């Protein structure tokens, strides 16, 4: 019969009494299930990314740099307006009596320094750079911790140098 | 401008999350679901408000969220497919006393859930006495007795 052939691919009719509402395995329902599965996968990936630190605050976010003046430990992936710690360990030989820690102008425009431990003896400006000066007593390693809040989303590069020596050059990705 | 973008992003992400989690997720709110809901709202609230506690900001956020919701309901009444995308569609899970296993599995519903609804709404105790059970878009199960 021609009519039944033309309806061969049509959806099963809605059961009597429930006509008119999309019921059964319609194309939409199958697509919805497919999207939901994809969504679960995306959710799983999000959680994995969170655990790994790619979204900030995890093993993959940890970064460290080393040069003659010392070691710098910081977070490669950070989130906007969230505090992150920068640990600068100064080598004894590199700083005698006084340590001038200089943040370049690019850094200064994207970050807010919330706190510095210990407090610097003085702070100064020089051509857009921020310079924090510390009195250094006995020789030996000394640790300075900067609590820094990224202010702008995106990838930013910057440098930190100690007493005008070879700078630490870093990049950091800030998430919204 | 930023507050409006934030409100839109939060609205869309939450909508997507709740659509992905399926119809049944918050159908019957258990005490734990309620706590979870509060935590979710608290977590998103922090991101939305950030450090701007001004009234202007609050009204902008609330205005954007309410406006989006109105826009969505307008879309839903205008287009059937928008309605399905945003709100899903009812699904038949029992036909003439026979559970449709594939549908139930996909929506994480079992026969006990159907019988629960059958007892509550019609005093029906057996699956054979159900003509149709439909999983509605809000996650509830409606029963048509034989």
Describe the 3D structure.
- The complex is a heterodimer of chains A (176) and B (146).
- Chain A is built from three helices and eleven strands, in the order H-H-E-E-E-E-E-H-E-E-E-E-E-E.
- Chain A has 176 residues and is α+β, with helices and mostly antiparallel strands.
- The termini of chain A are far apart.
- The model of chain A is unreliable at 1-10 (pLDDT under 50).
- Helix content of chain B is 60%, strand content 12%.
- Chain B is built from six helices and four strands.
- Chain B has a four-stranded antiparallel sheet with strand order 2-1-3-4.
- In chain B, helix 1 (2-20) packs antiparallel against helix 2 and helix 1 (2-20) crosses helix 3.
- Chain B is elongated and about 60 Å long.
Summarize the topology.
The complex is a heterodimer of chains A (176) and B (146).
Chain A: H1 2-6, H2 27-52, E1 62-67, E2 70-75, E3 77-79, E4 84-90, E5 98-103, H3 105-110, E6 111-117, E7 122-126, E8 129-135, E9 142-150, E10 154-162, E11 168-175
Parallel strand pairs in A: 3-11
Antiparallel strand pairs in A: 1-2, 2-4, 4-9, 5-8, 5-10, 6-9, 7-8, 10-11
Chain B: H1 2-20, H2 31-49, H3 55-78, H4 80-87, E1 91-95, E2 98-99, H5 101-106, H6 111-122, E3 130-135, E4 141-145
Antiparallel strand pairs in B: 1-2, 1-3, 3-4
Helix pairs in contact in B: 1-2, 1-3, 3-4
Short structural summary:
By secondary structure, chain A is α+β, with helices and mostly antiparallel strands. Helix content of chain A is 21%, strand content 41%.
> For the report, how would you describe the main beta sheet of chain A?
6 strands, mixed
Spans of at least 5 consecutive residues with low confidence of chain B: none
Mean pLDDT of chain A: 84
User: What order do the strands of the largest sheet of chain B run in, or round the barrel if closed?
Assistant: 2-1-3-4
What overall geometry of chain A do the principal axes of the alpha carbons give? Answer: elongated
Q: What is the largest interface, and how many residues per chain?
A: A-B, 20 and 23 residues
Mean pLDDT of chain B: 89
Give a count of the beta strands of chain B, DSSP E runs of length 2 or more. 4
Amino-to-carboxy terminus distance of chain A: 63 Å
**Distinct helical segment count of chain B:** 6
Fraction of residues in β-strands of chain A: 35-45%
- Biggest sheet statistics of chain B: 4 strands, antiparallel
C-alpha Rg of chain B (nearest Å):
19 Å
Cα Rg of chain A: 29 Å
Element-level helix/strand string of chain B: HHHHEEHHEE
The string of secondary-structure elements of chain A, in order, is HHEEEEEHEEEEEE
The overall strand count of chain A is 11
Supply the number of helical segments of chain A: 3
Structural class based on helices, strands and sheet pairing of chain A? alpha+beta
Question: What is the chains' assembly state?
Answer: heterodimer
